[in-house]
Amino acid sequence: MNLQKLSFFITVLFIFTACQQQRTNTGEKEDVLTTVPDEPAFEFRKDLDAIRKDGVLHAITIYNSFSYFLYRGKPMGFEYELLSRLAKDLGLELKITVAEDIDDLFKMLNNGEGDLIAFGLTITEPRKELVSFTESHYNTYQTLVQRKPENWRSLPPYKVEKQLISNTLELINDTVWTRENSSYAERLKNLENEMGADIKIQYVPGNLTTDEIIKMVADGEIDRTVADYNIAAINKTYNPNLHIETRISFAQRIAWAVRKNSPDLLEAVNNWIEEEKQTDDYYVIYNKYFKNKKSYTRRIRSDFYSKNGNKISKYDDLIKDYAADINWDWRFLCSQVYQESRFNPKAESWAGAGGLIQLMPTTAEALEVEDVFNPEENLEGGVTYLKRIRNRFDAVKDSIQKIKFTLAAFNSGPGHVFDAMRLAEKHGKNPHIWDDHVEEFMLKLSEKQYYLDPVVDHGFVRGSQPYTYVKDIFMRYDHYKKFISK
């Protein structure tokens, strides 16, 4: 047996032995805490019945280029899209909490800061002491991420390979950078034991995501790291100077997690995952974030990708000026503009509304807006109209509730909102609170027994439209606040 074959045989033997003897050495999509606390506590209890009673599914995730991020004003991510579908199928509103440090995920879950960790976790035995894992989403494996030589394009492949680590034995006395409390670090420590030799493990801050650490390798800040292969592969699209073919683990299962005392939620999520994985949409979503290299490259090169700066759209400065005029958070006005036109100043609806904030021709004429497709004129007219509408709801004292009334009236017309307020009062609800009061009767204005009620002056309206309009704008604003500073 020649030396090359012997080296290959030993490497495979090391990996096989590790997977048989040490079942805690696998990584994850964004590797997370592997150390189990001395005294894990599960005092906080909240299962599916309590979640349904609240009407909200609280999920915990990480802000990165795969799970959850903002792009051109739209919240995106593998976890985000699946969570949105899960919450909808469970009939729940979705609230997302972002963990600042990856190591915090399990603690936040068991402290009750969320009901579900929606993030790519590797299923390992130590972690099973902390959480209950869902059915797996997909499988992957750990790989070494290293940088090719600077002149790699001019070299034949075999000369490039000679300058790279091609098997785990070559890591002896070499340096690898990773997060301390990660399964990547755990795997490297296991390799040290298996080889009977040291690997110099250097730790990076725990709040760095795997794609950020990979970028450090590509930029020459560090020499190598460990990552899940699917993440390494998509990162290589934007960083072709990376080599990612030195495999250091066998296959591993990637899943979400719930508290150990939430068996009903676990069953519901598992049933949903099993059914979802039978649909084409599930794999379309997966491919969008882990397979579509062109889309990934376009996103991370964009000025409007949230990790590249504090921009939502090319009209941010203009929106900031007019948001100040109405005394709104500019990110909130951005959310409304996105709802109306997706930041397209040439957008035109079937009903004839046009421009960034979709002014109807009669409204534009009354506001003396000459060109609704001119972004500045359109925003100036739109904000003037919003202020006029807001002034008609002086009886609403709570500032947030007043904004909701204003938005509903902007969408459906003030008359229909006043009808819903009168209906709410007639039926014992508070006419000055939108949430769970007036919004309920806004929805009922599409039902004959309500739109023919004597207190209703403006007749039928498809109340689901202003209802959804208000909810969507506030929900998107909540996402904006997580990614974009004020």
Automatic annotation (TrEMBL):
GO cellular component: cell outer membrane
Pfam families: SBP_bac_3, SLT
Record keyword Signal present: yes
SUPFAM superfamilies recorded: Lysozyme-like (SSF53955), Periplasmic binding protein-like II (SSF53850)
Keywords annotated in UniProt: Cell outer membrane, Membrane, Signal
Compartments where located: Cell outer membrane
Superkingdom of the organism of origin: Bacteria
InterPro entries given in the database record: Lysozyme-like_dom_sf (IPR023346), Solute-binding_3/MltF_N (IPR001638), Transglycosylase_SLT_dom_1 (IPR008258)
Topology class, membrane: Peripheral membrane protein
Record's keyword annotation contains Transport: no
Domain spans labelled Solute-binding protein family 3/N-terminal: 56-293
Protein name as it appears in the record: Transporter substrate-binding domain-containing protein
Organism: Robertkochia marina
Lineage of the species this protein comes from: Bacteria, Pseudomonadati, Bacteroidota, Flavobacteriia, Flavobacteriales
